[in-house]
Amino acid sequence: MKLFDHNLPQGEAVKSPDAKRNRLTKLKARRKHWLDVHLWLGLALGLFLSIFGITGSILVFHAEINELLNPNLLTVKAPEANPVYKPLAEIFQAGRAAMPENAAHTFANYPRNNEAAFKLHFSLPLTGRQEGVTESWEVYVNPYTTQIVGKRLMGSSDSPFPKTFIGFIFELHYALFLGEDPGYLIVGIMGALLIISMLTGLIVWWPLTGKWRQAVTIKFKASTERLNFDLHKTFGFYSIIVLIPVLFSGVYMDVPQHVVPVLELFSPVTYRYWFKSKPTPEKSSITMADAVNIAEKRYPTGRADWIYGATEPTGTYTVCKDGVEEPGSLLHRRCVVIDRYSGVILDVDDPAIGTAGEVFTHWQWPLHSGQAFGVTGRILVFLSGLICPVLFVTGVIRWLQKRRAAKRGRMR
């Protein structure tokens, strides 16, 4: 029923608009404080947000870009008849034969499709004048013939800059060329502050007067100043759904040792890099190929993707598989941590059997890369990264516009 003045107690019709006006005034004053936080975080970190966004958009399709730039190294021709890989042990042996004996096999990438080469990563400590320097190499093997397609130097411990384009983008994105220590920590802190900036931007965007349509649309025929404002608020609103999960997952991957203890306040969490092998004098180390076989027995479906080597005496093998089909699970990636001596499985990243905290951590890499939702997810992450420099530029322009307006007001 519509409420008229004569339905209210005496004086209520006058007080109600005043109370509403006072409440709106308080909300606007409170929003002004959040605007200041949003402004200074944006000015301080907006350039870094742009860097993270652009490099992140490139890395969403890093495998495709890498193959496009290096087709002779990273692609092979699959045989028309019987396109079957050679045994994994033979592929690893061929890659090791292409490197000096003191090179350590640290990592391997399964081909992502039938036309991709097998990538083997090696760490090579130098001797002589360059003693103390370690080089990173990649060897590319044709999985159908075990022939060496080629190899290349990826980087060196005496230089912060990788030798390849994609390596350069990765290092800039995750560590700003500052190395794992303190680069990962600095980027992780920046990511956390950028999440706060996003949330304060949402508070500032929230339409206190209820004009929702105006808040989610752009007036293209408006003045230049208004168009810039609409671009900033609208792009920020639509991208925040993707950017906050991407930023948080980036923080988690850069500084898990700081994020996991917080998650453990709510639910138990294990982190696969914290598991160690137990050296056993009477047992020699199993091979990377053995580790893959163990993971295949645990998860027969899907295909292997990443294989982490055990380079230290207490190091573990980790085999990650994609496309693992399990009922009731939206994620199809599983990682198995294996003791290098006994072959015992120490841990599995499996959202079908883990705690709530572990399921949450399992989602971080798929969310960050967009792979959780297939091609659609990758495109959304790609576009959200490109929006980051737009937010920074429009935010700076808006700040300059308000400064000029305030200066004119003082002159009057």
Overall description:
Mean pLDDT is 90; it is low at 1-15. Helices cover 52% and strands 13% of the residues. The longest helix has 49 residues, at 12-60. It has 412 residues and is α+β, with helices and mostly antiparallel strands. It has an 8-stranded antiparallel β-sheet with strand order 4-3-2-1-5-6-7-8.
**Low-confidence parts lasting 5 or more residues at pLDDT below 50?**
1-15
Shape: elongated
Write down how many β-strands occur, each being a DSSP E stretch of 2 or more residues: 8
Beta-strand portion reads 5-15%
The SSE order reads: HHHHEEEEHHHHHHEEEEHHH
Q: What structural class results from the helix and strand content?
A: alpha+beta
Q: What share of the residues lie within helices?
A: 40-55%
Give a brief description.
The chain has helices at about 10-60, 60-70, 70-75, 90-95, 165-175, 180-205, 210-215, 225-255, 255-265, 290-300, 355-360, 365-370, 375-410; strands at about 105-110, 120-125, 135-140, 150-155, 305-310, 315-320, 335-340, 345-350.
Annotation keywords:
13 helices, 8 strands, disordered N terminus, single chain, 8-stranded antiparallel β-sheet, 412 residues, alpha+beta, elongated
List the helices and strands and how they pair.
Blueprint: H1 12-60, H2 62-69, H3 71-74, H4 88-97, E1 104-109, E2 118-125, E3 134-141, E4 148-156, H5 165-175, H6 179-205, H7 212-215, H8 224-254, H9 256-263, H10 288-298, E5 303-308, E6 316-322, E7 334-339, E8 345-349, H11 356-362, H12 364-369, H13 374-411
Antiparallel strand pairs: 1-2, 1-5, 2-3, 3-4, 5-6, 6-7, 7-8
Helix pairs in contact: 1-5, 1-6, 1-13, 6-8, 8-9, 8-13
